[in-house]
Write a structure and sequence with these properties.
Length: 497
């Protein structure tokens, strides 16, 4: 295919060039060389004498991924191991954050065991389906998820979606790292929350700095020790006999609790939708879409159900004084003292020092959970404008790490409030995103043949996105009217009446 030279270093280049030629239009918006489909060969990132090229050459010396949101050429989609797609999500969800989601059903949402269990089962089945579906687009087009979203929301409208996705990535990273820091604090009270946050964030940055291949390699193995330790937690808790089958409640409080808990479960499960294809875009174009879907499904459903149901079961053991609400057993005292970390510490306390070792491993499992967030936040930031795309991906990865640490450190002592009043809202925006993009794919584009990936950098050829943005705004309005987070929604009030 013909190569199109970018004009970044050519005197007289205008970033507002609106030449109708598709090839030139693509070229004028890429800080690199592109072929006539907009795909960018890997070696082209370091061509030239611009600051961008010099930084990319430096990164290339250390095997740091240089590609950002640029389309992957077909001859570079060589990652034929589909199991990596499954283990990517297996590791990202076989973590203490998933355990925490299930555990919060009892102290935060005041549910019984059976109603919370059924909510976990059915909401996860619903939530992961869009993630599996959009993962199949990566091999076919070689595009990242936020870039793919331009075909639904348009060149300008997708910037709004990217902002929401940045907030989601940073927000979930903050919540996750707080859980890990609580675990480290439960092991050693001399490790303050901020220290645990910095330790986990630094380790996550090192993995995501090197990019796609290193992230996949890390996730391919990191789920194994976490799974073994969760099995130990299961065995110890079963041996303790502390499980309590808390009865299901009724009435308006039960409805509100189930809806809010369902939003939290859905938000965590479907939260991967907005960067699903980011982790399959190096797969060959002709790979089976069905196999990609199934590997993703298996990688998601097993760890989510296992960890959340385990967290729910362990949380039933917490007992509080009905009058003073003071904790009355080791599980409740651990939770009051160090949150989810303290609850897990109470389960593993009989194992002594080995139990503390298990807690440290679980704390480090947060790295696997946050790798997708921090890798993808850099891609979402690059979608915001041509100038953000001209900043290399790995620099944005560093910026995202600093920002979520700055949020997590002051939020460490208010984990429940952070989760309930902010992160549940993530589930709302993703439901709206899916409600727009899925009908657009099936009804208006009539399937995979309705896309022309070559125009992904051409604003005048992409859909205007006006209808999608208007629909998105109406969806946000409806979510605000019904939400129980931060404020009391009008629709939610009517349900409770």
């Amino acid at each position: 295919m013909g190569m199109i030279k970018n004009e970044y270093d050519v005197e007289g280049y205008s970033p507002t060039d609106t030449e109708p030629s598709t090839e030139k239009h693509i070229a004028s918006r890429l800080p690199v060389y592109a072929d006539d489909t907009g795909a960018v060969p890997g070696e082209s990132f370091a061509i030239g004498n611009s600051l961008y090229a010099r930084i990319q050459r430096f990164a290339g010396k250390y095997a740091i991924e240089q590609r950002g949101i640029e389309r992957v050429p077909e001859d570079e989609r060589t990652d034929t191991n589909l199991a990596k797609v499954g283990t990517m999500w297996l590791a990202a969800n076989m973590v203490v954050s998933s355990f925490a989601i299930g555990a919060l059903a009892i102290p935060v949402f005041q549910l019984g065991f059976v109603d919370a269990l059924l909510t976990i089962l059915f909401i996860n089945l619903l939530g992961i389906t869009p993630v599996c579906f959009f993962s199949t687009f990566g091999p076919r087009f070689g595009l990242r998820q936020m870039v793919l979203s331009r075909f639904y929301f348009g060149w300008y409208g997708v910037k709004i979606i990217a902002v929401f996705n940045v907030l989601a990535c940073i927000g979930w990273s903050s919540v996750n790292v707080i859980v890990g820091a609580q675990l480290l604090n439960a092991v050693n009270k001399n490790v303050p929350g901020y220290a645990g946050i910095i330790i986990i964030a630094a380790a996550t940055f090192l993995v995501t700095l090197f990019g796609y291949k290193v992230v996949h390699y890390y996730e391919f193995y990191s789920w194994i020790p976490s799974f073994i330790i969760f099995l130990i937690v299961l065995g110890e808790f079963a041996h303790s006999g502390a499980f309590v089958n808390l009865p299901m409640k009724a009435g308006s409080s039960e409805a509100g609790g189930v809806l809010s808990f369902a939003a939290s479960v859905f938000g965590f499960a479907t939260g991967w939708t907005s960067y699903a294809s980011d982790y399959s875009c190096y797969q060959p174009k002709d790979v089976s879409r069905t196999k990609t879907f199934l590997w993703t499904w298996l990688g998601l459903i097993f760890p989510l159900l296992f960890t959340e149901m385990l967290g729910l079961a362990v949380a039933t053991a917490m007992t509080f004084d009905p009058v003073t609400f003071e904790p009355t057993n080791s599980y409740a005292k651990g939770y009051e003292g160090s949150g989810i970390g303290g609850l897990l510490a109470a389960v593993l306390a009989p194992l002594g020092r080995f139990g503390k070792f298990c807690l440290v491993v679980l704390a480090l499992s947060i790295i696997a959970n946050n790798c997708p967030n921090i890798y993808s936040v850099s891609l979402s930031l690059q979608v915001l404008g041509r100038w953000t795309q001209a900043v290399p991906r790995f620099i944005w990865t560093f910026v995202g790490t600093v920002v979520y640490c700055a949020i997590a450190i002051p939020g460490y002592s208010d984990f429940e409030t952070v989760l309930e009043n902010f992160m549940l809202v993530i589930g709302y925006w993703l439901a709206i995103y899916e409600g727009i993009s899925l009908p657009e794919h099936f009804i208006f584009k009539k399937g995979i043949k309705g896309y022309d990936p070559a125009i992904y950098m051409s604003p005048h050829l992409l859909p205007p996105g006006i209808a999608a943005i208007v629909a998105f705004c109406f969806g946000v309005f409806g979510a605000v009217m019904g939400m129980a987070q931060v404020r009391t929604g009008e629709i939610k009030d009517m349900i409770l009446e």
